[in-house]
Amino acid sequence: MEKELILIIDFGGQYNQLIARRVREKNVYCEVVPNTISIEKIKEKNPKGIIFTGGPASIYQEDAPKCAKEVFELGIPVLGICYGMQLMAYTLGGEVKRADKREYGEMEVELNTTSSLFKNISENNICLMSHTDYVDVLPQGFEKIASSQTCKIAAMQNVDKNFYAVQFHPEVNHTVDGEKIIENFVIDICKCSGSWKMDLFTKTTIEALKEKIQDKKALCALSGGVDSSVAAVLLSKAIGKNLTCIFVDHGLLRKNEVEEVEEIFTTKFDVNFIKVDAKERFLNKLKGVTSPETKRKIIGEEFIRVFEEEAKKIGAVDYLVQGTIYPDVIESGLGKSSVIKSHHNVGGLPDYVDFKEIVEPLRDLFKDEVRKVGKELGLPDYIVNRQPFPGPGLAIRIIGDINEEKLEILKDADYIFREEIKNHNMEKELNQYFAVLTDTRSVGVMGDERTYDYLIALRAVVTDDFMTAKFAKIPYDVLEVISKRIVNEVEHVNRIVYDITSKPPATIEWE
Ligand code: XMP
Questions:
Q1: What is the CATH number of domain 403-498?
Q2: Given ligand 1 and candidates 508, 510, 511, which is best to mutate, with the most ligand atoms within 8 Å of its CB?
Q3: Is 0.90 surpassed by the pTM of this model?
Q4: How far is the CA of 386 from the centre of ligand 1 (A)?
Q5: What was the pLDDT predicted at 351?
Q6: Which of 55, 131, 214, 229 has the smallest set of CB atoms within 10 Å of its CB?
């Protein structure tokens, strides 16, 4: 089957990957490429359509990003979005002007629904605008197909050439029917069949990795989380034993996780798997430490040291594999490589590992897409659907200082919590849920005996983005089962509380 590709030419807008996501949601394969891509390369890729993204620049700026003019001579449909529209207008002889003030927000836009771009959507639509420049004079051969009170040419088309452009952002949810606009472009105008599936991404990525890496060597730090596991499996499918995975067991993972990861990577996939048992080392470093930030710092640094020591034993490698996904890239800003917020990623980049280049096969994917790839590759559900787990692990779920006994208590309590959530079929409703071992002890009574034992807090949240979150309303009878089981089955715990604060003002983690 002919590969159908939509090429997204990146002019630096903050929503660019969202465009990619929307296109892929229509089951059409797409790639985001820099605006500096040559016309030869574009021809070689043979796209069925091209999308120009938005971007922060102004077209008359000296260093304004442009792209090869010949794009408009290929006979391929082009959709310009925001800056992309201005660039299209400017390049084809229209006029772009600068408004006195920026227009930002959800605006009512009147659409000409006889245009193929606006087929099957309502004439009055709410669209997200975010621009200062605007198209003032249409290029020859173009007609206006949308307008708003503040933007007289909110969209334009040249039907003969298949050029379309919108000043607003169809890729964001704020634009009602934006998704349909993208669909109209890729399916109706570009004539893509919409038959691409994640398995094709998987296949093409593996092939591209094979071609890139050939018989060279790659190294991957496995954390047991979804992203690094999926990245590692992709690489293992591409280069097999030329991939070495280092899994640092810092002793702060949840119950059974170390064994699960080890089993998968030693029995199901063909890689060199090195597990480093560094629990004692980490616990020694953490002895007596109570400050959450110091814990994070110690764990982050120690992780790098352990990883480096192991990597040194292997010697020089050509590639270092990172499980960076698209939201990590957004956080780090345009064009820079993905430096993730220090506290959000164990380790960051090791300083002394001898490698030539970083490979980030998941860089363009959103979390749910990474999960789909993981499933495709045969990773089990408990890895693929794993809830987020902080790099510093259980260390920031034990309030105050950490020791082995506390770790065991927390692991057992947390395991019971997770097991009951599963038993009650609530896994999908909750975005994150875990137990916290507080540093409070309280008086209880068990049998005839007075106890003075730990207080466990249960935390469960519902959230889209983890920036804000609501505490989950787990039914009392489920909480009751969990509470009874933990107190009965975990020694040294005699009281359970449920955290009913949302974020803000609380954070999701307790430390
Ligand atoms: P908070 O507690 O800030 O957590 O509301 C938001 C999300 O981030 C995770 N988190 C971390 N992840 N290293 C990580 O890799 C960290 O130090 C860290 N602290 C919090 C947390 O589990 C939640 O998903």
A1: 3.30.300.10
A2: 508
A3: no
A4: 14
A5: 63
A6: 214
Protein residue with least CA distance to atom 12, ligand 1:
390
Q: Distance from the CA of 78 to the center of ligand 1, in angstroms?
A: 41
Question: Domain 5-189: which topology?
Answer: Rossmann fold (3.40.50)
Which residues contact ligand 1 via a Cβ below 6 A?
A: 296, 343-345, 388, 390-392, 432, 466, 503, 507-509
CB 15 within 8 A of CB 54: yes
The pLDDT-based confidence of 350 (bands split at 50, 70, 90) is low
Instruction: Tell the CATH superfamily of the 198-384 domain.
Output: HUPs (3.40.50.620)
Among residues 144, 146, 163, the alpha carbon closest in space to that of 87 is found at 163
Domain boundaries defined on the chain = 5-189, 198-384, 403-498
- Please say if 492 is a catalytic residue: no
Closest C-alpha to ligand 1, atom 21: 390
What does the DSSP 8-state code read for residue 387? P
Q: Note the helical H segments in 315-403.
A: 326-332, 367-376, 381-384
Rounded alpha-carbon distances, angstroms, from residue 482 to 158, 341, 420, 423, 459: 63, 34, 6, 11, 12
- Note the pLDDT of residue 342: 37
Q: Say if residue 480's pLDDT is above 70.
A: yes
Q: Do domains 5-189 and 403-498 have the same CATH topology?
A: no
Polymer length in residues for the chain:
511
Cα–Cα distance measured from residue 193 to residue 27, given in angstroms and rounded to the nearest whole number: 8
**Are 386 and 422 in contact, with CB atoms under 8 Å apart?**
no
Q: Rounded to whole angstroms, how far apart are CA atoms 388 and 371? A: 12
As given in the structure block, the two tokens for residue 282 are: 């980490």
What is the rounded distance in angstroms from the CA atom of residue 6 to the CA atom of residue 1? 16
Residues 6+ apart with CB under 8 A from 348: 300, 304, 339, 340, 342
Helix 367-376 vs helix 198-213: crossing angle, to nearest 10: 80
Nearest CA to ligand 1 atom 24: 388
Query: What residue type is 8 in one-letter code?
Result: I
Classify 79 as helix, strand or coil.
strand
Mean pLDDT of all residues in the chain?
91
Q: How far is the CA of 343 from the centre of ligand 1 (A)?
A: 8
| Residue 424 annotated in active site | no
153 and 110 in contact (C-beta within 8 Å)? Answer: no
171 is catalytic: yes
217 neighbors 236 (Cβ within 8 angstroms) = no
